[in-house]
Amino acid sequence: MEGDLGVTIIGWCSDAGGDSRAISPLANNSGLLGSSACPDILDAATKAAEIVKWFSSHSRVARILNQEQLKLGEKVLALIWAVITRWTSHYLSATRLLAVSKALRAAVITRSEELELAAGSRSENKQKARESILEESNEDEDHLEPLAIAANLTQASNTRMDHILLTLANLYQIYFFEESLDDEVRYSIIASLEKRWAKADQDIFILAVFFNPYIRAGFFNTAHHPCTIAGILFKKNCCLAVHGATVDYYKGDKEFSDDMMNLEPLYESSPAEGIDLNMVSLWE
Q: Which stretches does UniProt call biased (Basic and acidic residues) (predicted)?
């Protein structure tokens, strides 16, 4: 397209076929995984949204919160409304609520009557929500932070297929080994990751990581036969030239060595020039 027609591709769309639907969830897995969290975390997120909405919707209450932040010598921060379908925004909303938690508690303790007057007939419900969310937001933040980071990585304009698999693998490692997180949340997200990976076109994602010369097979478990050089080569018949080249690349030998592929200079020059490393250019 670019060479023959001079057209720069900035995006693409697809039909509703099964192959298209299969790849889309992987690129948006962080949002789908967030929906797999246990009811307690979802309930905390709901309560956080209720508190943020209430404080943001009443100018008098918002003014009280701002005044309490100034009294504590803090920078005045506005609360963030979460977009219901974007877990990144839920994480940012929870972290901002925690950032102003001291001022919020001070307002509840010292100016409760003013808050109740602003709340009207629903003051009792709002008071209960305020008391509970400040305890649960820490847990909410801890569980959502990895998903929020993953969402930023996988929704970027320069996201590659190897980024997707590496991000999912990192999420799996976090929720598998981080015992400080709630077990129900961990098991739910791990099960969701395994379910979505089982439905994915795994070969293309694995190859994308393998053909990243900065990684090659370094992240794969070589005790698992499909990840060994024999498992890669002998799934299908291939000529001796392909066999030899694959072995050389797997080991980083000959023309596929780091020096021959000029990996280090390219890696160092890309951020210095303010550009992303173009993985395709390494193979041209």
A: 123-133
Rg (CA), the chain: 25
**Dihedral (Cα; 59, 63, 69, 71), 10-degree rounding:** -170
Furthest-apart CA atoms within the chain: distance in Å: 82
Render pLDDT for 136-193 as a digit per residue (tens, 0 to 9): 455 566 777 888 788 888 877 788 899 999 999 999 999 999 888 888 888 888 998 8
Q: How many CA atoms lie within 13 A of 60 on its CB side?
A: 10
Joined tokens for residue 117: 């007057």
Cα–Cα distance, 239 to 198 (Å, whole number): 30
pLDDT digits (tens, 9 = 90+) for 251-260: 899 999 999 9
DSSP 234-258: TTS---HHHHHHHHHHHHT-GGGST
The secondary structure of 82-120, three-state, reads CCCCCHHHHHHHHHHHHHCHHHHHHHHHHCHHHHHHHHH
